[in-house]
Design brief:
Elements lengths: L1 H4 L3 H11 L5 E3 H8 L3 H13 L3 E6 L2 E6 L6 H12 L1 H12 L2 E7 L10 E8 L4 H15 L2 E7 L1 H10 L4 E5 L2
Parallel strand pairs: 5-6
Antiparallel strand pairs: 1-3, 2-3, 4-5, 4-7
Helix pairs in contact: 6-7
Length: 176
């Protein structure tokens, strides 16, 4: 869907990289290796995003490091579009809310780092859960979003340990 609206593949990769996880930052050469694209194409798009105020740049050592400008008025909207692109809204609806007893949901792995991936690593913090029911809900969500979902169940006790092990873990849902 996103590639229909935005035909520039580099631009899409940058949107995913920076607007999925607001803590994500990177520099030109790192993006070149991640995207397997020329630095010129990436630099052009980075400059456009920076000029529009969507990205902010800073110096780390001798590198110009970019990150999403979370203060930009369009940041929440772009973040929402990117999350919908990955189907997080549908995952939450199909798996988390129907499962009950879930207090938080995280994604880890490539997606949490803002990289394209066909697999979604989902960690749910919850009490006792019917694993067969979870498997059925996950299978339904996979069909809807067209991605594989790997689910891990955490308790309140082992959540902090999991976050230490996977510092890129991105909180995508919290029961309020």
């Amino acid at each position: 869907m996103l590639d229909t609206l935005i035909t520039n593949k580099t631009r899409i990769k940058l949107l995913l990289r920076f607007f999925l996880n607001s803590n994500s930052s990177s520099y030109l050469r790192n993006l070149e290796s991640e995207f397997d694209e020329s630095t010129n194409a990436i630099r052009l798009e980075l400059n456009r995003f920076e000029k529009a105020g969507l990205l902010v740049a800073g110096k780390e050592s001798n590198r110009k490091v970019y990150r999403a400008n979370t203060q930009h008025p369009l940041y929440p909207e772009i973040n929402n579009i990117v999350r919908k692109y990955f189907g997080f809204d549908q995952i939450i609806e199909k798996v988390v809310q129907r499962l009950g007893g879930v207090s938080r949901a995280y994604i880890t792995g490539d997606l949490a780092r803002g990289l394209e991936s066909k697999a979604i690593n989902l960690a749910l913090v919850c009490g006792k859960v019917d694993r067969d029911y979870l498997s059925r809900l996950t299978a339904k969500a996979e069909k809807i979003i067209g991605r594989s979902i790997q689910c891990i169940l955490l308790t309140e006790v082992n959540e902090a340990e999991y976050i230490r092990e996977f510092p890129e873990a991105l909180l995508i849902w919290k029961n309020v």
